[in-house]
Amino acid sequence: MPEVRIDESVTPAAHRAGLTAALEARRVDNRFHYAGGAAAARWRALAAEHSPSRDDADGLVAYEAAARTALGVLPDGPVHVIGVGCGDGVKERRLLGALAGTGRRDIAATPVDVSVPLVTAAAEAMQAVPVVDATHAVAVDITLVRDLSPLLAPRLPGTRVVTLFGVLSTVGDGALAPAMSLLRRGDILLASANLLPPSPDARDAVMAQYDNRPTREWLGTVLTEIGVGGADDIRFRWERSPTGDMVVGEVTPSAPVVASVGGVTVGLAAGMPIRVLESHRHSAEGLSRMLAAAGLDVRATCVSPSGEEGVAVGVSRG
Ligand SMILES: C[S@@+](CC[C@H](N)C(=O)[O-])C[C@H]1O[C@@H](n2cnc3c(N)ncnc32)[C@H](O)[C@@H]1O
Fold first, then answer.
1. How many domains does the chain have?
2. Domain residues for 126?
3. CA 85 to ligand 1 centroid distance, Å
4. pLDDT, tens digit, for every residue of 81-109?
5. 147 C-beta neighbours (distance < 10 Å), count
6. Of the residues 24, 205, 228, 267, which has the maximum number of CB atoms within 10 A of its CB?
7. How far is residue 34's CA from residue 115's CA, in Å, rounded to a whole number?
8. Which of 9, 11, 113, 169 is the best mutation target for the ligand 1 pocket, counting ligand atoms within 8 Å of the beta carbon and taking the most?
9. Positive/negative CA dihedral, 41, 249, 143, 314
10. Is pTM beyond 0.70 here?
11. How far apart, in whole angstroms, are the C-alpha atoms of residue 150 and residue 182?
């Protein structure tokens, strides 16, 4: 079993306080949809079956092209892969397999995620790659802990390759700073984002990826647990955001409800929406610009055949 370091930001007390405060602001932020065992299991099943980013003929094409670019700029010597918001680590496992396939033997890996069940699964996935040392995992909330470097100390020798896959789209652009906090000059970041292709039917196709039974049931897990509705109560729509368009999911109670979070109750008035999902869509150029503005020399932004997934590779200048 991996040793999971549990930061204070993800203790049950922090989770309770965070979810209570979020509900008072009429939100169930992304981080709360992965924390519990049932929600994490539903998300894993959903991602494995339906995520375009895991489609061999589509999303994975972009991830593999980005991995080739990263391997091309990676110096010889030890390498430490750190997966920030890694989920169950399926994408990092492929990256580690590609690294091991080049004959490298000095490879360490550390999964980092808000979800204890997911970060544990990720460490197990990474350990399954022969030659990879992935004995530690870190559970931390990156919206609360912006400098992750103390959690990854002491720094291992060699080059860090930090991944930030699927997190800019779900947590938002604020997720970039914690990932950047792990980089020194010459280290590499691979960051992905959901894109909105320019075709006329793209918005309907993207919406169908959210407004479906498995996604509703995943998002409904925590809502049912705390008593603010269920899968069928969620309404999805498009909304403009400062960085582009996003899909929003909301529940609007028709009568007052009292949510219960680990014994703490929050009263929610009728008729006012509770936001339970924000999923941002970037452009490939916007993703590149964001990484460049953060201090990275962007070597490539790889786009999937459908145009829905972008993976950028940057080398740290600072
Ligand atoms: C869309 S999933 C992507 C997972 C994985 N990287 C992938 O591409 O399959 C978003 C991930 O971000 C994690 N996450 C959400 N909010 C977080 C937070 N505040 N701190 C750390 N991780 C967070 C979730 O637990 C989840 O694993």
1. 1
2. 1-318
3. 4
4. 999 999 999 999 999 999 999 999 999 99
5. 11
6. 228
7. 6
8. 113
9. positive
10. yes
11. 9
